[in-house]
Amino acid sequence: MTDQKLEDFFRKVEGNTNAVEVLQELQGHFGYIPQEHLKEVSRRQGIPMVTLSGVATFYTQFKLKKEGRYTISMCRG
Length: 77
Hints:
Blueprint: H1 3-13, H2 19-30, H3 35-45, H4 49-58
Helix pairs in contact: 1-2
């Protein structure tokens, strides 16, 4: 991740303390939620780390790992 990309993200979410919106924007910027950026997001946005982690792991829409190009699903029904 480039520092410029991270700074662009922070400019876009400046002042926003809604954890879901901030995480959606972070994922939109990077394609997933980089763990190494959560502390900085917490510090700069004033959102407790426990809140960010809780929201990120509760909602299935958030991806904590970078995904591959293809997703394979298999029904074993």
